[in-house]
Amino acid sequence: MAFHSWQNLADQPIVIDDTTLRDGEQTAGVAFTLEEKITIARMLDEIGVGELECGIPAMGAAEQASVRALVDLGLRARLITWNRALVGDIQASLDCGIRAVDISLSVSDIHIAHKLRKDRAWVRDQLKRALDFCARHDLYVSVGGEDSSRADLDFIVELMQIAKERGADRFRFCDTLGILDPFATFEKISYLRRHVDLDLEIHTHNDLGMATANAIAGIKAGARFVNTTVNGLGERAGNAALEEVVMGLKHACGLELGLDTRRFVALSRYVGRASCRPVPEWKAVVGERVFAHESGLHADGVLKNPINYEGFDPGEVGLGRHLVLGKHSGSQALVQRLKDLGVEVSRIEAMALLDRVRSMSERNKRALTDAELLTLARRHAQVA
After folding, report:
1. At 146, is the secondary structure helix, strand, or coil?
2. Cα–Cα distance between 37 and 64 in angstroms, integer?
3. pLDDT in the model for residue 4
4. Which of 286-289's residues contact partners 24+ apart within 8 Å by CB, and which partners?
5. Over 70: is that where the pLDDT of 231 sits?
6. What does the pLDDT look like over 92-108, one tens digit per residue?
7. Hey, is 249 helix, strand or coil?
8. What is the pLDDT of residue 3?
9. CA distances from 185 to 22, 71, 229, 252, 353 (A)
10. pLDDT of residue 382
11. What are the start-end ranges of the H helices in the chain?
12. 42-56, 121-135, 247-261, 308-322: which has the minimum mean pLDDT?
C-alpha cells in the first residue's frame, strides 16, 4: 500500500477541521448566540480554515436552525456536523442542508461495555447501518472513533476496513480523555496508516497538557485531517488550539498551511469574549504578553535584533512587541521605552533612574505602567 508520508505532505495537504462551534461550545458553561456563531464561522472561513464542524442537529430545533443559518452563508469551508451513528441523527443533518457528517461511535472495550452496554458485534452492525444510509444519500463521511486511544488497534483496523468498503472518506482517531503522549500518538497513527488505506483525522484533548503536541504527532505519523478549536476551547481541559497547531506546524515542523495567521489575535479575542473565557496574557501564540520582554539581557538582545529572543515575528499572528519595565529591566530597555513615550534620556540618566524603577516594581509586585514610568522620569529630572 502507498501512503503519504511527512515528506510528501505538500501533495496531500493537511486540512484543519475546526470544531470551535461544536466541541468548543461543549466547554462547560459556554453557549454561543447565533450571531456569534455566524461571526466565528465567517472569520474562520476568511483566514482559510478548510472545514468547520458546526453543530449537532440531533440536539433539536434551535441547533438545527443555527446549522441551517451557517449553511446559508455559502462559505468556502466545508461544513460538517457531529452525529451519533444513528439514522435519525444523520437525517437531522440532511434536513439542515448538510452534505458532510461525522458519525461517532464508541470503539474502546471500556466504552462498549460500560457506556453502550453492548458488544463489538453491535458496534460493527451499527456502523454498517449508518454508513449504508450515508451512502444512499451521497454524503461525505468521517467515522469518529470515540475513545480510540484506549481501544484495541486491531479492532479499529477492522472498523476502518468496514468504513472504507462502505464508502467512508476518513476515520477520526479520538484521544477522548487526553491520555496519550506524542510518542504513543505517533505509534498508534502510524500503525493504522500501515494497515488501512483510508485518510485519518486526529482529535486530541488537553487533559495532560499535550493536545497540541499530540495533534502534531498525529499529523507527522500520517493523519491528514486535524481537529482544532480557537484558544483550545473544549470539554474539560479543552482541545488542541488552532493557533498553536498552525504556528507549531509552521515554525517547529516547517509545514506552512497557507492560513492568514495575521488574524489569529482578532479571532482569539472575539472567541474569548463570546465564550466568556478571556484569553490569558501568557497564552501561547496569541497572549497579549507573549512578546513582552523585561529581563535586561533579553530586552537588550531583542533591541539589537528581534530574532535573538523571538521565534517568529509577532506580526505573523497580529501581535506587537512590548518592552516591560520592572524588577529585571536593564538601562537599554529603559532608554528605548522612554524614547517610545517621547522622553529622551542619556544612558547615565537611565542608570540613575533604573534603581527607582526596580524598587517600585518590587514593591508593587508588577511591572510599571507607562504613566508611572513617566511620573518617575519627570520627578528624577526635577531632582537632577
Report:
1. strand
2. 13
3. 45
4. 286/231, 286/243, 286/317, 286/318, 286/319, 288/319, 289/322, 289/324
5. yes
6. 999 999 999 999 999 99
7. helix
8. 41
9. 23, 34, 19, 18, 53
10. 64
11. 34-47, 61-71, 87-95, 109-111, 120-136, 153-165, 182-195, 211-221, 242-251, 264-274, 296-304, 331-340, 347-364, 370-383
12. 308-322
Closest-CA residue to 173 (of 196, 142, 216, 197): 142
Q: Give, in degrees to the nearest 5, the angle at Cα 183 between 178 and 186.
A: 90
Chain position carrying cell 468504513? 163
Is residue 357 within 8 Å of 373, Cβ to Cβ?
A: yes
pLDDT at 357: 83
Q: Hey, CA dihedral for 43, 318, 273, 226, is it positive or negative? A: positive
- Please write the tens of the pLDDT for every residue from 181-204: 999 999 999 999 999 999 999 999
The residue count for the chain: 384
CA distances 192 to 17, 284, 312, Å, are 20, 31, 34
pLDDT at 11: 65
CA separation for the pair 204, 202 (Å, rounded): 6
Coil, strand or helix at 83: strand
193: cell is 496508516
